[in-house]
Amino acid sequence: MDNDEHEHVIEATGLRRVYGGGFEAVRGISFSVARGEIFALLGTNGAGKTSTVELLEGLAAPAAGTVRVLGHDPCRERAAVRPRTGVMLQEGGFPSELTVTETARMWAGCTSSARPEAEALELVGLADKLRVRVKQLSGGERRRLDLALALLGEPEVLFLDEPTTGLDAEGRRDTWELVRNLRDSGTTVLLTTHYLEEAEGLADRLAILHKGRIATAGTPAEVTAGRPSRLSFRLPDGYFLGDLPPLTGLGVCEHEADGQVVRLRTRELQRTATAVLTWAAAAGIELSGLDMRSASLEEAFLGIAQEQDAAA
Ligand SMILES: Nc1ncnc2c1ncn2[C@@H]1O[C@H](COP(=O)(O)OP(=O)(O)OP(=O)(O)O)[C@@H](O)[C@H]1O
Hints:
It comes from Streptomyces pluripotens. GO terms for molecular function: ATP binding; ATP hydrolysis activity. Keywords: Antibiotic resistance, ATP-binding, Nucleotide-binding, Transport. Its main location: membrane. Residues 10-236 form the ABC transporter domain. This protein is an alpha/beta fold. The chain folds into two domains: 3-224, 3-Layer(aba) Sandwich (Rossmann fold), CATH 3.40.50; 229-294, Protein-tyrosine phosphatase receptor IA-2 ectodomain (Alpha-Beta Plaits, 2-Layer Sandwich). Helix content is 32%, strand content 27%. The chain contains ten helices and 13 strands. It has helices at residues 49-57, 78-81, 100-109, 117-123, 139-151, 169-184, 196-202, 220-224, 269-283, 297-311; strands spanning 8-18, 24-34, 38-43, 64-69, 85-88, 157-161, 188-192, 205-210, 213-218, 229-234, 252-258, 261-266, 288-293. The strands form three sheets. A six-stranded mixed sheet has the order 5-6-7-3-8-9, sandwiched between helices. Strands 11-12-10-13 form a four-stranded antiparallel sheet, covered by helices on one side. The chain has a three-stranded antiparallel sheet with strand order 2-1-4, covered by helices on one side. Helix 4 crosses helix 5. The two termini are 44 Å apart. The protein binds adenosine-5'-triphosphate. Residues 19-20, 23, 25, 43, 45-51 line the site of adenosine-5'-triphosphate.
């Protein structure tokens, strides 16, 4: 079969990973990633992200379950998969005495059909650091070098393990733009990250891992749907929380007042906001600092971790 016709370029089914001593770090994970999609794996420390990505990269074989990347088993059919994938590990571990160019050249020598080193280094914004030794690079610049090396082979599938850790805000934005451009030109990207705004802004779909299992998965909008939204405002002097219309029946699940500032969490933002604004208009008062926002991925993430721990 022509691998280019695979709709899902990454398919994980029932993956398990057990370390020496019997610790099960990955406990039956299934998901797939379509060609040209950015998929993010999120999770608390030790949730099993790196353990899963290593299985996808073919660096280890699963204790159970199957992995297919571009239609092949990345561990047993490494020769078929490796030239078409780019891997950015958490720690590059390159000889620190080499310069940036020498490192890229050395890596290009191990890469089939590599793009010119200068082009890859330019893509990640290291064009002005070509003669600098790796040991002299800042932490963020090393991450960029790691990314440049992963891009050398013009990969169809790119694995990025915490690609923006250590980057400043500008470096992070540049990396996001680069990853989006790669996706738009057809590259499939699987990334792990601790930055929830990164996953929210970048990922087409994501999975949140918790203790080796997928707690939830979907588009960022799907994952945050159903989580309470926030509504806050300041009441004028002389008005109090108890003056508001009855909050029961409006989907409000939490309310608090800090002086004149009222904060509500509601599962029905439109109904709650309409009731509050109608009440304010009827009373002829202005609600200063009015702020409404849907649940963020961060709130969903924290809520899921708490729920899973409570259920356990
Ligand atoms: N070689 C190993 N031997 C035994 N246990 C391991 C080994 N490598 C990882 N683990 C354990 O497996 C679990 C999952 O680790 P993993 O590195 O996959 O998590 P992670 O989600 O990537 O975490 P982080 O966000 O901290 O990078 C952790 O409890 C970790 O201690």
